[in-house]
Amino acid sequence: MSTEKYIVFKLKGQNYAASIQQIVTIERLQQVVALPQASSFIDGITELRGEVIPVIDLKSRMDLPRSESTEHSRMLVSPINDVQVGFVVDEASDVIDIDDGIIEAAPTTIKGVNGNFLHGVAKLEDRLLLLLDLEHVLNYEEVNEVKQVVQEK
What's the total number of domains in the chain? Predict the structure, then answer.
């Protein structure tokens, strides 16, 4: 069995996690410039260390109700098909080790969560964690739209 590090984050009070290998950095939410005629899941763009990156509200992408940003809001920056993408979450709280032996296959019928997004479910002593696969949060067409957003700027 092997162990992997995961970043634990919250969306609407629910705990999720993503492999630390999929996340380049965790940033405080910065000013986001809205883009006209962009898909609803694209909040806009922001600049991070001289690079323009698209910002995606992970809640809206997962069909969860949007909420106002707070001082706890964070942006998980992840490379998706050669584009750095910022995923907005309510809070990033922890980095934990998860043994692959406690990860079960993701159920295909979790309301509001596309099964392609899920890597699995980790059964921890005190909670269940839905493990997201950030590389699959966007489909092929959406990745291309995100690339176009960056190229146009």
Answer: 1
pLDDT at 67 exceeding the cut of 80: no
Residue 141's pLDDT is 86
Which CATH number does the domain housing residue 35 bear? 2.40.50.180
Half-sphere exposure of residue 89: CA atoms within 13 angstroms, side-chain side: 26
Half-sphere exposure of 59 (CA within 13 A, CB side): 21
> Looking at residue 36, what DSSP letter applies?
T
**Domain carrying residue 11:** 3-151
Residue type, 12: K
Closest to 92 (Cα-Cα) out of 134, 123, 50, 48? 134
* Distance, CA of 150 to CA of 134 (rounded, Å): 19
For residue 153, pLDDT over 70 is answered with: no
What would the two tokens of residue 43 be?
């909040």
